[in-house]
Amino acid sequence: MSEADAETVPGRGTIWVEKYRPQTLDDVAGHDDITARLKSYIERNDLPNLLFSGQAGIGKTTCAVAIAKELYGDSWQSHFLELNASDERGIDVVRDQIKNFARHDPGAVDFQIIFLDEADSLTSDAQAALRRTMEQFSDKTRFIMSCNYSSKIIDPIQSRCAVFRFGPIPDDAVAGYVQYVADEEGIETTDDGIEALVYAADGDMRKAINALQAAAVMGEQVDEESVFVITSTARPEDIKEMVRHAIDGDFTRSRSILDELLTERGMAGGDIIDQLHRSIWEFDLDDDDAVRVLERVGEADFRITEGANERVQLEAMLASLALDN
């Protein structure tokens, strides 16, 4: 297929996550309070060191790049260094790349920005060296760090930063932005298709847009079925039915649904655990049943994480729930 032909096929030609990445803080969806505070720093040209924490795909990197673009305009790349700490996590990256950039004269601007993505991957020695670098070049360099777990960032660095905790993007914001992308690309969607994208994304905008692009290639319309297939996600009602049969003592029927999810749909045990955990309170269970399910889910998750067989642990979880009946 030629490039010209590829452009006429929905989902081909470009990566939508990058094509529709917000360019300004005003365009960032779902974090109005955070973007309002960041814009106030930009308006005063008084940016502190920043620490963004939260799960993947919720806008941390987008906000960091948007800050640089709004501060520096077209020359933002000259004053902005982006490093992924998970690639180079040792002390050498601080001593070499970071320190070399930090000591540069920012020229016409008041300060330059170093953005460390996945900063929680830095070793303890690297973080200690980074703390000293932050102090040494505080007059001409600002640091923006993003991480999944702020608890893995040492306290001396946290105390030198304004901490912003990014929560999962609200469902209505995900739905609105996904619909906007679909409209821009001329993709026909159904209401249940959008709902399925929101459910599968679980607050992760990047996952939602990637799923939309993948589903758009499968057919003329993005509906619930295509989304669940492409994301290898179980329907919420299937998870609910599996748990309900187990609680009612029907282990055979519950195990049959589990087998379908693992074998026919190719789901990973960890994904089933994740869906179970976030859906428990939507199952209309009484408190005692919900507590029992949570206890069994936690035990199965721990054992799977430690390397136990996924199928055995999930079947044992359902059997335990059935025996408690």
TrEMBL record:
Enumerate the transmembrane spans.
Answer: none
Keywords, A to Z, come to:
ATP-binding, DNA replication, Nucleotide-binding
Q: Which GO terms describe its biological process?
A: DNA repair; DNA-templated DNA replication
Molecular function, one GO term: ATP binding
User: What domain of life does the native source organism fall in?
Assistant: Archaea
Residues binding ATP are: 54-61
InterPro entries to which the protein is assigned, alphabetical: AAA+_ATPase, ATPase_AAA_core, DNA_pol3_clamp-load_cplx_C, DNA_Rep/Repair_Clamp_Loader, P-loop_NTPase, Rep_factor-C_ssu_arc, Rep_factorC_C, RFC_lid
Q: Specify the AAA+ ATPase domain's residue ranges.
A: 46-170
Q: Name one Pfam family in it.
A: AAA
- The answer to keyword Transmembrane applying to this record is no
- What Gene3D superfamilies does the database record attribute to this sequence? 1.10.8.60, 1.20.272.10, P-loop containing nucleotide triphosphate hydrolases
Output the Gene Ontology cellular-component terms.
Answer: DNA replication factor C complex
User: What family classification does the UniProt entry report for this protein?
Assistant: Belongs to the activator 1 small subunits family. RfcS subfamily.
Protein role: Part of the RFC clamp loader complex which loads the PCNA sliding clamp onto DNA.
Question: Its quaternary structure?
Answer: Heteromultimer composed of small subunits (RfcS) and large subunits (RfcL).
What is the recorded name of this protein? Answer: Replication factor C small subunit
